[in-house]
Amino acid sequence: MTIETTKWDASEFLDSEEAILAYIEAAFEDGDPALITHALGNVARARGMTSIAKDAGVTREALYKALSDKGDPKLSTLLGVMKALGLRLTAEPVPTDNHAEARLAS
After folding, report:
1. Is pLDDT of 100 > 70?
2. Which end of the chain is more exposed for a tag (fewer CB within 10 A), N or C?
3. Residue bearing the bigger pLDDT, 105 or 7
4. pLDDT at position 99, please?
5. Cβ count near 87 (within 10 Å)
6. What is the mean pLDDT of residues 69-76?
7. In the chain, where are the structural domains located?
């Protein structure tokens, strides 16, 4: 028996600001650059790649390339996309596991 599947597209479900923010936060929490790039691409497609590209100051084609699975966007592109999405990239301390530090010290 063959099971039929359809391709799942996250951009179809990013239909509210809350969903978009939770999705982006989860990607950044994971910390994998490829996952972050993929998530930003999904959000950009959900919002409209052309308008996001324009607001980010890049061409639509350049944005598709930067946010593709093989893309590695420059920091300026990443910041432009975040701003176009109404988000900003911030820095905060990484929580530490005091028990792990104690084990390493001994």
Report:
1. no
2. N
3. 7
4. 57
5. 17
6. 92
7. 10-105
CB 67 within 8 A of CB 57: no
Q: What is the pLDDT of residue 96?
A: 79
Distance between CA 82 and CA 18 in Å, rounded?
Answer: 15
Provide CB contacts within 8 A for 17, sequence distance 6+.
86
State the SS3 of the chain: CCCCCCCCCHHHHCCCHHHHHHHHHHHHHHCCHHHHHHHHHHHHHHHCHHHHHHHHCCCHHHHHHHCCCCCCCCHHHHHHHHHHCCCCCCCCCCCCCHHHHHHHHC
